[in-house]
Amino acid sequence: MLNGRTHWSVLVLCVLLAGGAGFFFYQTTQLKSSLVTTAQEADDTESHLTQRLAEAVETIQKRDGQLSELENELEETKEDLRDAERTIEEFEEEYRTTINAVKDLNKLSQIDEELLQQYSRVYFLNENYIPERLTQIDEKWVDATKSDEYFLAQAWPFLEDLLEDAERDDIDLRVLSAYRSFDEQAQLKGQYLQTYGEGANTFSADQGYSEHQLGTAVDFTIPALAGQLAGFGDTEAYQWLLDNAYKHGFILSYPKDNAFYVYEPWHWRFVGEDLARDLNRDGRNFYEVPQRELNEYRLELFD
Ligand SMILES: [Zn+2]
Question: Is the pTM of this model over 0.85?
Answer without folding.
Answer: no
